[in-house]
Specification:
It is built from nine helices and eight strands. By secondary structure, the chain is α/β, with parallel strands linked by helices.
Amino acid sequence: MHDKRLVIVIGHYGSGKTEFAVNYAVKMKEIYENVSIADLDIVNPYFRSREKRKFFEEIGIKLSDSSIRNTAIDLPALPAEMMGVIANPNIKSILDVGGDPVGARVLARYAEQIKNVEYDMFYVINGNRPDTSTVEGVLKYMKLIETTSRLKITGLVNNTHMLKATTVEDVEFGHELTKKVSWETDIPIRYEAVIKETADKIKNQDIIEKLFPINLYMREEWMS
């Protein structure tokens, strides 16, 4: 993996970008001693990386989030230690950012500092969501997010899924969609995120080369 030290994960509502961010942080912990994930999602009131505080603590990943510990309260309070997360060269940092232009506005606050370090910004695509099921839809949101955040997307993540019901066909549809977006933008596909049960069934060599098997950490067992 040749990703930059600071990785920003962004994607439209329902893309599964927090699930990818959490899995990515767990994977990075296998490689780096110091890993930090910052929850900057002030948009989505449901599946937030901050809900997994105990899990992160147990595996030694530092979670930076708002100073509000009650997850039922939704206030746009930003982490006080954000500057350290962005600038500290000794920490592999992941930023989990709200999935639309409103969420990207949070990033704009730190854009100048982020531009001073090497960073990647991964855009997570779920082709099964209505707003991002076409190349035009994906490009529209990518442009809005780049304009709002004042930062450039550097990589694409195919995360086309139906949660536990995800099929190989879902993944392949998302792959073709993401490939077309890559052609249009010259932004490379960095990862093909697939739940582990389905990842084992993938035969497409192009997908296998960038396969990133994930667990559904953000979904309780009783959820579909």
